[in-house]
Amino acid sequence: MRFISQTSSDGVTEQLFTLPATSGDIPGVLWTPDGATGTRPLILVGHGGGQHKQAPGVVAQAHRLVTECGFAVAAVDAPAHGGRPRSTEHDRLIGEMRGRMQAGGDVAPVLAELHALIAGQSVPEWRAVVTALQELDHVGAGPVGYRGLSLGCALGVPFVAAEPRVRAAVLGLHGAETSAEAAARITVPVEFLVQWDDELVPRATSLALFEALGSTEKTLHANPGRHGAVPEFELDSAVRFFTRHLS
Amino acid sequence: MRFISQTSSDGVTEQLFTLPATSGDIPGVLWTPDGATGTRPLILVGHGGGQHKQAPGVVAQAHRLVTECGFAVAAVDAPAHGGRPRSTEHDRLIGEMRGRMQAGGDVAPVLAELHALIAGQSVPEWRAVVTALQELDHVGAGPVGYRGLSLGCALGVPFVAAEPRVRAAVLGLHGAETSAEAAARITVPVEFLVQWDDELVPRATSLALFEALGSTEKTLHANPGRHGAVPEFELDSAVRFFTRHLS
């Protein structure tokens, strides 16, 4: 793991890093309280489709979790996102998806193929990132949480299912089509977000993914509105959820 | 309004009262912080079927809201519940319902008839209780909240729809069959609870009642488990919800 830069604002230290991987260098960012030393819970934030590790929503979550809870928070660019190269296969699927969206066609099968391609790469990447971050003195081997919606859920479900260091997850804005099988292997507490009028994810497939989760403790939070209109109070809820399960 | 007794425990003053009504005396209870003076938010708690104004779950909610938020909390016995007389019509419908439950028959139409009968009485009663309580110096004319699940939701939906002094409500464990029309007239923020494996309320009718609510801000909270197994953290959530909307 190589650190590239370190800055601080509002009591939050932000460190950009890259971690070498067989799939290419992973660009990431770590947020911790200024002057932090010692072990603390680590929250991983999976960004949405077309976004990146420092999208405004990701940074806002990180600042809340660092300043209110004293946690460490990390995000990485998903494969084919942010500063990362796209393979011809990525390009083909993204082009196909955009074409179908413009033509009003059925995007679901292409999106499923794209998610499967990216997840095959991102799951081992996230696991390597956790290992590397937990070797740092100001992160340490504390409990891990994951929050990811939309693409962050599509990639998060197989990751949380595969990674026993993750003890609690906030997921949602994604359906069961490609994720039900991995969801059934998740056993940690989950808060699962649904937008009741989601124009991208049919309500029935959202509810089916919640249903598929193997967790004994899981709570569905549904709010009116479209895909991008998750109310701000759901971030408050996530902060409390992680505090309850990881502190 | 006539006060019958006053006791105190853990910083919470409990006053039993009766309020005369055309439907007979309404037995109620008011909880406030010890030594409280001045106006504060008032939360009304509607108990479940077969329960009463001082059922353990009602008292536990009251103590949380009084000690953590400084609110006033009140509960009354619903018609045909607690210390209140049953009419021959109540007896007929309750007997019919029990008979169908034992025989494994369709309880829904009888339950709907019973709820309609009780709500016709309880809505004006709750409104009179609010008026009387808000004349007290240690309650005053502050914002009002309502929390009621199961029977407390069946009676709460028409009450919240009819009563503009109610500014926020926590409802749930009840379906759309008899409540959808009144629910559409509710416009205040609602937190709506669903038990995913509810053996008494079909999931689809629960979701339909959430859908029917006219509120712009409404959040569905669904948890696994049967009708009576609402997780304790949903009371935490209700405390925060009322704090957010009424403080």
Task: Quickly list its features.
homodimer; 247 residues; alpha/beta; Rossmann fold; nine-stranded mixed beta sheet; 7 helices; 39% helix
Description:
2 copies of one chain form a homodimer. Chain A has 247 residues and is of the alpha/beta class. Chain A has one domain (2-246): Alpha/Beta hydrolase fold, catalytic domain (Rossmann fold). The first copy, chain A, is 39% helix and 24% strand. Chain A contains 7 helices and 9 strands; from the N terminus they run E-E-E-E-H-E-H-H-E-H-E-H-E-H-E-H. Chain A has helices at 56-69, 88-103, 108-134, 151-162, 180-183, 203-212, 233-246, and strands at 2-9, 12-19, 26-33, 42-46, 72-76, 144-149, 166-172, 190-195, 218-223. The first copy, chain A, is globular. The two termini of chain A are 27 Å apart. The mean pLDDT of chain A is 95. The A-B interface holds A 194, 196, 210-211, 216-224, 231, 233, 236-237, 240, 244 and B 194, 196, 210-211, 216-224, 231, 233, 236-237, 240, 244. Strand 9 of chain A pairs antiparallel with strand 9 of chain B, so a sheet runs across the interface. Chains A, B: GO terms for molecular function: hydrolase activity. Chains A, B: Keywords: Hydrolase. Chains A, B: Belongs to the AB hydrolase superfamily.
Strand residue content of chain A: 15-25%
The largest inter-chain interface, given as chain pair and residues per side, is: A-B, 19 and 19 residues
CATH topology of chain A: Rossmann fold
What count of helical segments of chain A does DSSP give?
7
Family (chains A, B): Belongs to the AB hydrolase superfamily.
GO molecular function (chains A, B): hydrolase activity
Keywords (chains A, B): Hydrolase
InterPro entries (chains A, B): AB_hydrolase_fold, FrsA_esterase
